[in-house]
Write a structure and sequence with these properties.
By secondary structure, this protein is of the alpha/beta class. The protein folds into two domains: 126 residues, Roll (CBS-domain); 62 residues, Alpha-Beta Plaits (2-Layer Sandwich). The radius of gyration is 23 Å and the shape is elongated.
């Protein structure tokens, strides 16, 4: 499955000129951990997170009130410009790996350099917690997309384990099991080969 299948869309975004208070209100209201920062063409220029705003509140300033320089007031002042992103066509295993390796809670999804959505840890968990019936349909669809001859196998899922049966060569069924294991929510895949009639 792809990032586009699990992402929240449209993404809640801000511009570089958005006041920090407004950004904080959006984070709280939508219960999200970060906001992609986009320019007028919806191109990604940065990301601002809860941590960025919390960090502002914890910065100590011992100078006298009259001597203090103006503090950050808009998103551009605190946003991160080196943003981890994924493409709408990125498979969900790769998305999960990016989140883990980068220690982030969500990642913007791009299509033709524009933000089309966001995949969060919550989105991934929701996707992986689908019912066995939904997973069976998903595995069948993925197998169909991979190769025409894989559309002839039968798929059932129980407690996240896919059972693949069909009249097919052993290496074909082994490949089908490998493909099935790539579907988020599938914990394992087993094959059962039927004898060819006659």
């Amino acid at each position: 499955m792809k990032a586009k299948d699990a992402m929240s869309s449209p993404a809640v975004t801000v511009s570089p000129e958005t006041p920090l208070k407004e950004a904080g209100d959006l984070l709280a209201r939508h219960q999200i951990s970060a906001l992609p920062v986009v320019d007028n063409d919806v191109g990604l220029v940065g990301i601002v997170s809860q941590l960025d705003l919390i960090r502002l509140d914890t910065m100590a300033d011992d100078s006298a009130p009259g001597d203090r320089p103006p503090g950050p007031t808009q998103v551009a002042d605190v946003m991160t410009t080196d943003v981890v992103t994924v493409n709408a066509e990125t498979d969900l295993h790769s998305v999960a790996q990016r989140l883990l390796e980068s220690h982030i809670r969500q990642v913007p999804v791009l299509s033709e350099a524009k933000v089309v959505g966001v995949v969060s840890r919550r989105d991934l968990v929701k996707w992986m917690a689908r019912s066995d019936a939904a997973l069976a349909l998903e595995v069948s669809g993925v197998l169909r997309d991979q190769a025409q001859h894989l559309s002839r196998v039968e798929v059932s899922v129980r407690e996240g384990v896919a059972q693949i049966e069909g009249v097919a060569p052993a290496d074909t069924l082994a490949f089908a099991a490998k493909v099935a294991r790539s579907v988020p929510g599938i914990t394992d895949a087993r094959v059962s080969r039927e004898d060819t009639p006659g």
